[in-house]
Amino acid sequence: MRLVNFDLDILRTFATGIDLGSYAKAAAQLGRSTSAVSAQLKKLEDQAGAVLFRKAGRGLALTDAGATLLAYARRMLEVNDEAALALRSASLAGEVRLGLQEDVGEALLARVLGQFIRSHPNARIEVCVARSAELQRRVAAGQLDLAITWEAGADGLAGERLATLPLHWIGPAGFDPLLAGGEGPLPLVLLEAPCALRDIATDAMDRAGIRWRCALSSASLSALWAGSAAGLGMTIRTRIGLPSNLAPVDPVAAKLPALPGISLTMHRLAVDENALSTLLADLLRNAIHQLADAGSSIPGE
Asked: Which domain holds residue 204?
């Protein structure tokens, strides 16, 4: 059997179109005509020997084969880009001050920072794991070079939206959703204010006319996980970093209100001339897109 050598340039176009939610946007970003991009995608289907796209309304969606190829394409591009960065900028030295929101910090730290240090052995990274509002404040004050946070709405610091993730009601694994409809106010486990997810949860309950009470409030995400696992009350989060003893609760069965999505946003210094910061931002952006794919994101929304 003759193996296929996929064209990395075409794979980059393929992945970029999915990330941006539009191949017209991908063509503009990559400096190509839409007809050139269409020709690339046709060649990719020929190389794959499978149909990669299907009609979805006025746009396109991935087939099962397309989703499989996308996962491999991201891995191939990641290795390619890591090699290119290592050869081009191994001599770069200096410090990058990075801020990560708790949910994504654990998922990104080992993977992205390991890759970054292998490519830039003379670099040093200072990491701050904190709440979104605190990270945005530190970026604005010039105390961090870049940060990944939940989008905090109109009052938050402007940034680059990377992906939008669905929010879920969370309870103990194996939790019977029918128990959520018991008598009395529904107990919730929430992070201390200010917290965008806390506001979303309580606003959703108020709009649905469901009585609730705060059974546990903490500044610590680990305390929130522990309280939810112990059955003190439900909380809301994305699937990122969700412990194995917790699971999403079916909102219909539990008679809970539907929840919106929430965006992960990258914030950077207004004037950032740190080359290492730019390189790390690229790695983080790619890693977030992969996390988003695994978490049923709404890319580019």
From this structure: 168-259
